[in-house]
From TrEMBL:
It comes from Exophiala bonariae. This is 4-aminobutyrate transaminase. Belongs to the class-III pyridoxal-phosphate-dependent aminotransferase family. Keywords: Aminotransferase, Pyridoxal phosphate, Transferase. One of its GO terms (molecular function) is pyridoxal phosphate binding. The keyword Transcription does not apply. The lineage of its organism: Eukaryota, Fungi, Dikarya, Ascomycota, Pezizomycotina. Its cofactor is pyridoxal 5'-phosphate.
Amino acid sequence: MSISKLAEFGTRHVAKGIGRLATEVIESGSGSYVTMVSGRKMLDFTSGIGVANLGHCHPAVTKAAQTQAGKMVHAQVNIAFQRPYLELIQSLLPLMPHKSLDTFFFWNSGSEAVEAAVKLARHATKKQNIIVMQGSYHGRTFGTMAMTRSKTVYGENYAPLMPGVFSVPFPYCAQCSIATRCDGKYGPENCCMDPVDQLELLLKRETAPSDTAAIFIEPVLGEGGYVPAPPGYLKRVREICDKNNILLVADEVQSGFGRTGKMFAIEHYDVRPDILVVAKGIANGFPLSGIVSRKELMDTQKPGSMGGTYAGNAVSCAAGIAVAKAFQDEKILENVNARSKELSGMLQKAKADHPDMVYDVRGLGLMLAVEFVGGKGYAAKVQAKCMEKDMLILTTSIYDTLRFIPALNITQEDMARGCKIIQESIAEVAAS
């Protein structure tokens, strides 16, 4: 098929419900770049929406997958143990944010892992209700659509969805009615903690602790705008969970595996989750997800109640082992924190240079965002300018926000190039 016909074919035959940034066709990827079938090479600050954390086609990950594909591609998890599954657990145990997280179940996608966490929480507590955060994103399946509160498009016209889900405000200080009206008294470093009060009220008004199985929370809101939880907030939520026999579930599908400068974002807050949800960067592009919890919780489930045809695929697990090794061998977290200073520094300068356009800069590690003054579509305009300059970048949130998700091993040179493109694009939109 000719290059000119590929995109047209895709538009005609690929489901319309799949939104996308561009109609170009990607031919290949290497490191921080993707190359289109047209030959156009683009700097990728999307990393497959936080999946290719170690860049496209990382050599060690690719080699591990190729080797495993020659041994065993599919070893069904409900039939027998398979070596890569067990060796992946062995690789991940030392990386867990708390020593109590010692028992694993691997699945395929982030949504499936979230649903596995719901199953575990409901089964272990013998309670039904789930609390999620406003602005949260947990997936697009029927269970996770009910839990996703970042945009109505994900659940619009698909009801009825899973019952028993309640939502409470997340401490999003840039849009908090208290923080924005207190003349600087409260903010991201000194949260008013009204969301804690709202959580306690929810447990009194709508879902009693005796009916509430778990609170699901992204330590850094993803689709909701790349908003890190402020200091102290997660500790307060942990206290509420302990007091009321409610499980705390950390959804680290997007914020995990080094994205925020620590292996898991929850480590920034020194809080123990009862269940950890992982996916995306765990295998650098190979379909793999999972939940991790303490053995006594996981052992409440009867054999046969969990599983799946492709759950913990052998090739994906082999890729995951290589990812874990690369983090150590290549000092990935050191690079994340060094490059984070460069990117966040540029964004802060853009805010200082364009105060009437740039409203907020936030994030952790290489999970950063810039929120623009609302109502003028600045994010989409800057995104378009970046694409003109051969750079892929994504918007997010119901607010006017750009998010930055470069590869965690991006070089200083490529980060400098990306910063230059973003800075120029913001300046050009500001001048237009």
